[in-house]
Amino acid sequence: MTGSGTAVVGLQWGDEGKGKIIDVLTPSFRAVVRYNGGANAGHSVVVGGKRFALHLVPAGIFHPGTAAIIGNGVVIDPIAIMKELETLEAQGVDTSALVVSTRAHLVLPWHKAEDEAREALLAGPDPDAPESGGAPEKAIGTTKRGIGPAYADKATRSTSIRAGDLVRPDVLREKLRSTARFKNAMIRALNPGAPEFDAEAIFQSLQPCAARLGPHLADTPYLLHTLLRSGGDVLFEGANATLLDVDHGTYPYVTSSSTCALGIPSGTGVPSRAIGDIIGVMKAYSTRVGGGPFPTELRDATGDRIRERGREYGTTTGRPRRCGWLDLVAVRYAAMINGASSLSLMLLDVLAGFDELRVCTAYKVGGAITDRFLPDAHDLAQVEPVYETLPGFAEDITEATTRAELPASALRYIRFIEEYIGLPVGIVSVGPDRK
Ligand code: GDP
Ligand code: IMO
Ligand code: MG
């Protein structure tokens, strides 16, 4: 008997409501596995009106019968995960089902310092182009959680430390020493006033993390294969989202990992043929946090209204999210890259009360019309959205529990999406709560 994998992935620029879907689906699975990203993610789960924010801990943690696995593809900030576990436990959540890959790389203080310093340097005026009156905004608008520098070190190899090293004190101490020598030279160049890193102090600060995480460390690829071989089904929890994917997103305004379903095999050690359903999660409109092109962005009262109705403020950084109409060109591209088999349409309730709803079905670029997404940030910044206008719905739909209870215009909106993307909408979400 062989179990199968189901993936939940974001089809836009993040915050589509993946956490809610993971929480709802978890009871049918033996394990929920994060495969990418780190504490840049912010996945909300609302249970009976109580809101929980997950950053590193899989959103399946509320069901203790299911293993909550952090796979090898994730970068773990050991201090952040300790705090997250403490917060969850203080809220009465049982975290004993957590499993952490020995091969996940660590985010250490120098990664966060480098993330900050790079962003500050890139946001400032360009000394080589004083006539421009300051360089155009080159900063990515990262979450400053050290994600980019941590993945860069993983690829560089000589200056990265993995979760398994936490419980090998001699190895850890030596790696911290040699890496700190290198990082001190680098941070001085980036930010001459920055304080030096003290390897021994970092070693000491990691000791409580080693004690806390040690019992949860495991060889997760073997664990997952054993589970699947025994007939257990596994749910993969995507973090960030497809348009932020380092290869397939709006580069360079992306994060540093493989965020879409293509990242699951490398981020977990589970081969792609074990993955069956791929659920693409999308909002009924678009949002984006940080820099980068966003063709359907609304910098007006309509955008503000979506932000207020959808409570569109970052789960991780609290930043107001940029809001706009649904971009179906972008979502269809993301569904294609993932090989999505169905869609979860989230936050449809937020669109109640608009007379008309606009959806972007093509782009105008250089006088031509195209329905292809242009993932290169420079190209995407040149496009102008082409909209279709659909009738809005006035009714509050937050109490609807079946499609039959939705107003005709809401049903028409859903059908339009299904037809354009060529996939069924399997779940329609009309409120943050699990119910
Ligand atoms: P994630 O990063 O994809 O897990 O999404 P976030 O948790 O960052 O952001 C989604 C936000 O929408 C959270 O505040 C959720 O509680 C909320 N949410 C999820 N589904 C719905 C929905 O159907 N309606 C409304 N109004 N809010 C929702
Ligand atoms: P969830 O899992 C929304 C964005 C950041 C920034 C860019 C790079 O909650 O959907 P990073 O810190 O990763 O180097 O930042 O990516 N970003 C997200 N935006 N939701 C997320 O995760 C995000 N993770 C990263 O805002 O623009
Ligand atoms: Mg989020």
Describe the fold and architecture.
The structure is a single chain. The chain is globular. The strands form 5 sheets. It has a 9-stranded parallel β-sheet, sandwiched between helices. Strands 14, 16, 17 and 18 form a 4-stranded mixed β-sheet that branches. It has a two-stranded antiparallel ribbon with strand order 3-4. The chain has helices at residues 18-25, 78-90, 109-123, 147-156, 169-190, 199-213, 220-229, 264-268, 301-309, 328-338, 377-380, 408-421, and strands at 5-10, 31-34, 43-47, 50-54, 67-70, 75-76, 98-101, 105-106, 217-218, 234-237, 275-283, 286-288, 322-324, 326-327, 342-346, 356-365, 368-370, 384-391, 425-428. Helix 3 (109-123) crosses helix 4 (147-156). Helix content is 31%, strand content 20%. Bound molecules: guanosine-5'-diphosphate, 6-O-phosphoryl inosine monophosphate and magnesium ion (MG).
